[in-house]
Amino acid sequence: MIRQSREDDLTAVLAVINDAAQAYKGVIPADRWHEPYMPLAELAQEIADGVRFWIAEENGRVIGVMGIQDKGEVALVRHAYVATVLQRKGVGAGLLKHVQSLTSKPILIGTWRDATWAINFYRRNGFTLLSDHDKDFLLRKFWSIPARQAETSVVLADQRWMERAASVKA
Question: Which of 53, 60, 93, 148 is least surrounded by CB atoms within 10 angstroms?
Answer without folding.
Answer: 60
